[in-house]
Amino acid sequence: MTAVSGQHPAVAGPAIAGQAAEEDLRALFGHSTAVFASLAGPTHLVETANPAFFAAIGEERARPGAALAELMPELTGQGFIALLDEVYRTGEPYTGRDVRIELGTGPHAREAFFDFTYEPRRDAGGTVTGIRVLGVETTQVKHAQRLMAEHRALLEQIARQAPLAEVLDGMARCIENLAPQEVLVSVLLADPDGRHLRHGAAPSLPDFYNQAIDGIATGEGVGSCGTAAHRREPVIVTDIATDPFWADFRHLAERAELAACWSTPILARDSGLLGTFAMYHRTPRVPQDTDLALTRVFAGTAALAIECHHSEQARRAAEARAKSAHDQLAEVVSVERELRAEAEQRATAAAELAARMRAAAAAQAAMPHPERCELGGAAGCTAPAEIKIADSWGDAAWGCPAHVEEAIINVRSVFIASEELGGLAAYVNR
């Protein structure tokens, strides 16, 4: 097991970042190599071919002198042998551009693209004796175009603030489609405290596996991802069956048929942990340059998506807090207005009652104890005058229990003034 140190593209200097990006492009796309083969006779025997030709079709099939259909039986079903037959019969060359070819069969089959030409070979009399195959494999260019298109689509998703789960799931599927060999991609997201990793996306891993590792701790020796998150650097486990980092998870990996795992931390611009990006394999494997380049490209894309998601979450939380504060302020203002209106009503009532008391006090010279309540206002009150009240200025009035209580509540310094006549008892027992 080896750990690979690396600096996140977002924090590297411009020159270093530019150089790394160029190296990644070279690793991903490489340089196309021309292929050549000279075929003889109507059965298209391979007379001679350059190393690039055999490298393209598979070194194990490097047998000059054999018929092309024998070396590459898969070409018959794809129409390429028929094209050779046509060129041999008519003597007319044929050129194809970005033609898709399925090379090999079974688990070793691979998709390839070629620009090629079938040119007839003629003898001194002009009779077609064979065909020259000239071509350039454009698979890497085609894959580059696909990668750029997929990457552009991911960036557009991020720009329009698509759900993070949707972006990460699409990214994982894109890598699985672009990788030259079978790979299963997983993205885990760091908790805010950076101590645990949560499921982010893993479209090709079984559900039981995703559920089991959801919430794993970050720490030294906690599988590939937990260790990469702890170290803040890539961790490459080429054989899960023997690596000590996987001691606690080996049974889980065996059940999921996983044999290798390369994990890279996803880091923010301030080097904070955002999550991990992992590539799993069915067989023990050492990463190639193309694998590492894909990892670096998409780890940076994942970082951008996660940071944008966090920023959007923070914005929405701030807006929610602002709305809550606004609603609370509006409620306080409404209550304050209600209290102010109530206070104004009470002040008006108090002024009216005080005026009634002054009028009643002036009338007591002629009638010290009136029969009817004096506190009923303009409408009057026909209830018996049972209780005498007074204020600190010496004004007094007689009233019924209901109007006396209103005066005590609303007029400052009003008190029961007829205790000797049973007024207090009448008020208490009202």
- Portion of residues in helices? 40-55%
Q: State the domain count.
A: 3
The CATH superfamily name of the largest domain is GAF domain
- Overall CATH class of the largest domain: Alpha Beta
Query: Proportion of β residues?
Result: 15-25%
Let me know the average pLDDT: 82
Q: What is the CATH fold-level name of the largest domain?
A: Beta-Lactamase
Number of helices: 13
Protein name: GAF domain-containing protein
Organism: Actinoplanes aureus
Domain GAF: 159-316
InterPro entries: GAF, GAF-like_dom_sf
Fold and architecture overview:
The protein is rod-shaped, with a radius of gyration of 45 Å. With 430 residues, it is an alpha+beta fold. The longest helix is centred in the last third of the chain and has 75 residues, at 289-363. The protein has helices at 14-29, 51-57, 68-71, 74-77, 80-90, 139-159, 164-178, 207-213, 223-231, 250-255, 289-363, 401-410, 423-428; strands at residues 2-3, 34-40, 45-49, 94-103, 110-122, 128-137, 184-190, 196-201, 216-217, 235-237, 260-267, 273-281, 387-390, 396-399, 415-416. It folds into three domains: 2-17 and 142-315, Beta-Lactamase (2-Layer Sandwich); 33-137, PAS domain (Beta-Lactamase), CATH 3.30.450; 364-428, no CATH class. The strands form three sheets. Strands 1-10-11-12-7-8-9 form a seven-stranded antiparallel beta sheet. Helix content is 44%, strand content 21%. A hairpin with a 4-residue loop joins strand 2 (34-40) and strand 3. The protein contains 13 helices and 15 strands. Residues 159-316 form the GAF domain. Pfam families: GAF_2. This is GAF domain-containing protein. It comes from Actinoplanes aureus.
